[in-house]
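Q: Hi! First time doing this. I have a protein sequence and I read that you can turn it into a structure. Is that right? Here it is:
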Amino acid sequence: MPDKEIEMLATKRNLRILITEGMESSVYVDRIGGKDVYVKRAKKGRRQDYKFEAGVLQELEKVHAKAPRFIGLSGGGDELTISKVPGFSIDDTSLIFSAGIYNDVACEMEKWRAILPKSESELKKVGVVREYDARRISLVLGLERGKRVMDMVRILEEKHRDYLDSVRKTLVHGDFSFDSIFADNGVFSGVIDFGDAFFGDPLLDVAYFRFKEINKPYGARSYKLLVNALKTNPDDGLVALYMIYFALDRILDCADDGIRAKFIDKLDRVLGTGGGGYEHVL
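A: Yes, that's right. Below is the predicted 3D structure, encoded as structure tokens:
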């Protein structure tokens, strides 16, 4: 459907209902052609270009992935309309322990790995980076914790240098967790929220899944189910390194002290503060 037609329909009916609101954007539910759709809109004063996400969704459709379907862009790229994935998130449900769900998710993740960057500009959509301002990290985390983090990053990057420099870069979800996995009547129905997608090592999604759930009592068990479904045995050192990347990105980018504190707590768990972390990989 053309951009102007989508915009005119939405304006004419004014049926949009706000369902979630973040720092950068808001998500509304609307009806177009008799079907519910989601509309992601950049918040006033925030520039949010959804063109990359729109392209990702179109590529996912080509590989028959169970994901939101791209419907249209409007507002110069500041508004994205997509289809709804049926069902609800598996978070806080018994489905997080369903091996069948993880087998289906593993099949989806294999489809993502078939999507490769088409240009150098797409490769710049890296999501996480390997260069950080050590001074800023020390200011945010404190001298002792900051030094420990940077020492661990340096050691792990050197240990895995050949792998990091040669890994094949494919589509990475970028925010992969229980929240993103949907099921309908107990059956896997798709993965949502590709707004943080980028191109990189597919293992980054596995590491983020572990990082996101690291402070939950069932995090280790669900991570093992995912790894078993993927039929892989990821290196603990790489997983720890990637979790630190995600932690630093979230901590340094976060304006809310309460949310930042939650990410720092997760980082401490990776570092092994109080035991049970990944200090054994050094």
